[in-house]
Structures are given as C-alpha cells and as structure tokens.
Amino acid sequence: MGLINQVFRVRAEAKVAMNSAEAFAAICLVAIASDGYLSESEEIEMKMRLSRMKLFQDVVNDRKKGLDRIKDYLIEGLKKYGPNEMVASARAALPPNLAPTAFASAVDLVFADGTVSAEEQAFIDDLRRILEIPDELALKIVEVMTIKNRG
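-> structure tokens emitted (151 positions)
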C-alpha cells in the first residue's frame, strides 16, 4: 500500500456518493475542518466563496437544494465516514480539470484566518498528492494564497 493510501486510506470505491459540485465542496469542507474545528465563520466563508463559482450557480438558484443542503449532506458524511473517506469520495467524483481549482480553494480557505496549524499544513500537502497537483503548480498556488491572505 502506497503512502497516499496509508494516509488517506483511499479505496477504489467511494462511500459517499457525490456529484462534481458536492465533491468540490467536500474538499473545501474537509480543508477547513482539518485543524479539528469547524467554526461557523469558516462555514459562512466557504458558502460565500462557493456561491460565486459557476459550478454552484444551479445550486445557488435552487432554494430547495441550496448550499445548505450540500453542507448538511457533507457534514453528515464527514461525521459518519471521517475525512479520509470524504476526500477519497470527492477525488473519485471530481473532474480532473477541477483538481487544481479545488486545491487552490482549499488552500485559500485554510489560509483565510491568517494562521495555518500543523494539521492544516499536513492536510494541504496530502491533498496535493491525492489530487495529483504538480509540485511547481502547488508551490505557486500556496505562494499566491499566502500573499492574498497576508493582510
């Protein structure tokens, strides 16, 4: 079993069924919860950022299936299966062309509060490997998000 599989216990079959928008949101949710704490302000920030994305426009416009429904579904999955299975399920459902965008969004959300814990650093590094983000691109994303969230 490879290092990534050991860390995230990635399995061929996803335990949490997701569409591409839910997969993207799951990565963001696990990122903000990677320090062991999910604050209301982090949830609000995540919903605000996702609601501005083209990927979520149908979700935002559908009052019955809005971002709150997705958030509730993902939190339920996170509690039931844990972060490893959520990331594995999200990876299975996420289109490859959205992997760099999901990584950048996760990094941005983790860096938004101005501090990055050791757990968050480890998560970002593991997420980079899981999503197969090239080292050079991952470094650029981290550098830009560091600058963006400095002030």
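The chain has one domain: 3-148.
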